[in-house]
Each structure stands twice: as structure tokens, then as C-alpha cells.
Amino acid sequence: MPTEAAEASPPSGSKKFLNGLLETLAIIVVAILISTALKTWVVRSFYIPSGSMMQTLQIDDRVLVNQLAPRFGPANRGDIIVFDDPDHWLSAAETSTYKPNPLLEFVGLAPSDAGSQLIKRVIGVGGDTVECCDAQGRLLVNGSPIDETYLEDGMDPSDMKFKITVPKDHYWVMGDNRSNSADSRYHVDTQPYVSEDDVVGTVFLINWPLKHFKWVSNPEDVFADVPAPSGVTGS
């Protein structure tokens, strides 16, 4: 009959190795599940391929986007948003140049549908009237001029004249590099507005390269004196 000491003998080396391997695999699986959940519903990284948002965002910057923001309410004037292409703003030639990296997509460093998404700043929300420009060359939002501190010194807010009223649940968006941004201004004859349903999330951090690392906040002072819209048009 075996003694108590024999019954309590330590596991063999092979059994220890197997237990350690199983524990490591379990940790990896849990990490993958958490990563998948985060990149699907919470935060995702996006790559900046063009200069349309300079000087705020540089070519090759990586930014983190809060994907929960649209679930808790609409974007605000001044927010930088990532959104699905509203109506063929991107040409076939532009979308075809996007070559997804399966590894980066898997770990959440790049979205699988980035080739059909854009990034711009919200200038007008539903009901706003946005106009270019007053005698000093400033954009007007609901009749109030705004001093866009995020534009590069000497850059004109727009070299195109326009006056529009944003439909309910939509946005008028523009790039910070106004002379090199095919934004809402260039689609007034088709679909210049971004639907709230097409918004992926709000940019909150530049996380790469490290020399550009910084939080991206809403320039609230720019729009502080803009009055509420007097009416909202239908979509």
C-alpha cells in the first residue's frame, strides 16, 4: 500500500513543462480575445497616408481613435473624425493603392477597411450654416467668424466660396491643410456631408512616431462664440 509521501510526490519534469505550456497558451488566447475586443469596439490605430490634415497630422503618423465616442453622442465642432467614404470621395485609383498588412490588422495596428476611410475635422454639425468667407477671409459658422488656430500660419481657410446648411445628423468636414484636402467643399454637387452613421470614431492621440507623440484635443476656443443653429434641415 503506497505511503502518504509517495502520494504527494511532485509532478515529473514533462508534466511541469506541459502545464507551463498550457498556461502560456491560455494567456495568449485571453490576450488575443482582449485585443480583438479592444480593436473592434473601443480603440483602433489608423495610419495617415496623405498631407490633407497637416500641420496637425503628418504623413506616416499613427493615431489612436476612440470608437466608443459615436455610441455616446454626436461629434462636436472641432473634433477630428475617421469616417467611411460618404459617396466615392476616394477614387478607385486611391483605394487601390491601399495594401493591407494582415499582421498589423490582426493585432489591431491597422484596420481592414482603412482603404475606404478618411480623416477630417468637423466644422459644421446638423443645422449649422457654414460659409466662406467674411471680409477678413475667415469661415463663418451660423454667422459667427472663427479663428482657426490649428491652421498653418498664412493659410487661407478656403480658396473656394460656399454657403451651405448641414442636414440633421450630418457633418460638414474639412482638412486642416485647406489647399490640399478634397473635403466637403469638393462634393457639393453630390454628397458633401458625412452621416453620423458613417463615423468610425474620434482621434485622441498621435502615438507614432514618438517625436510626434501628443494628445489630440478639441480646440474649443475656436468655436466658443458660435451660436446654436436656428434650424435643422432634413437629410
Describe this structure in words.
It is built from five helices and twelve strands. It has 235 residues and is of the alpha+beta class. The chain has a domain at 32-127 and 167-223: Ribbon (Umud Fragment, subunit A), CATH 2.10.109. The radius of gyration is 24 Å and the shape is elongated. The strands form two sheets. Strands 1, 2, 3, 4, 9, 10, 11 and 12 form an eight-stranded antiparallel sheet that branches. A hairpin with a 6-residue loop joins strand 5 (129-132) and strand 6 (139-141). The longest helix is centred in the first third of the chain and has 30 residues, at 13-42.
Quick summary:
With 235 residues, this protein is α+β, with helices and mostly antiparallel strands. The protein is 20% helix and 24% strand.
Protein topology:
Blueprint: H1 4-7, H2 13-42, E1 43-47, E2 62-66, H3 69-72, E3 80-84, H4 92-96, H5 102-106, E4 117-125, E5 129-132, E6 139-141, E7 144-145, E8 162-165, E9 170-174, E10 194-195, E11 199-208, E12 214-215
Antiparallel strand pairs: 1-2, 2-11, 3-4, 3-11, 4-9, 5-6, 5-8, 6-7, 9-10, 11-12
